[in-house]
Amino acid sequence: MFDRLREDIASVFERDPAARTRFEVLTTYPGLHAVLAHRATHWLWIHDLKWPARVLSNVARLFTGIEIHPGAVIGRRVFIDHGMGVVIGETAVIGDDCTLYHGVTLGGTSWQKGRRHPTLGREVVVGAGAKVLGPIAIGDGARIGSNAVVVKTVPPGATVVGIPGRIIECEQDADRRRRADTAARIGFDAYGATRDTPDPVANAINRLLDHIHHMDSRLEAMSRALEARGIMDHFDHDADLDAAIIDSPSAADSPAVAVPTAPHGGAPPSA
Which helix (H) or strand (E) holds 132? Predict the structure, then answer.
């Protein structure tokens, strides 16, 4: 029991720079109190003391603002930061070293008994206000962005944002970024946000613009060929397209990357 308590306190220092002393963490962190209370309520629950377990869990919710059903399974070194408004359902499973922020819901989407809440793997970060709903699996090391609504399984290492949740970063990209970040000790991203999180809508529009550039370049090449045969006059490339790009909000501090265009008479870029 004391070994796990030491682990819990150490995990707070790893993931919260505001933590100063062990005594302060032990006495003032509601996320830690909620996890400790859950261990007692879960023990009561699995020993068929359902009513006392529910009563104790409601007392813990009263003091911490965090609602954890006694039937939920929580691994080691789970850190609930701030914690107010967190709801964890009966059949939810949270793996080791996960981090949840305030307003997170691990909820169910069915009134039927049985498995109806999500399963989180190891080292998952769920950002503030995110909702993970239904009997889905969130892979090891996944990041759920703040206010995302996730209703589908997320592969390991992926980053998910938006409503409904969309994968914007795969495991290979996340691993490459975390290896480059020497300051990250365990690949931790506060609130489930990466530093260069792209906008999925802007990304889709920019891909359409890439395709328009490709078609424009091909039409320009065709017009040159028609002009060479005296069929029609050549028309120039539409220069206004060069400025048609949507920057991701996360890239506000970095220079915009222009959409590639083919030189006149050259090979068009791939669509």
Answer: strand 131-133
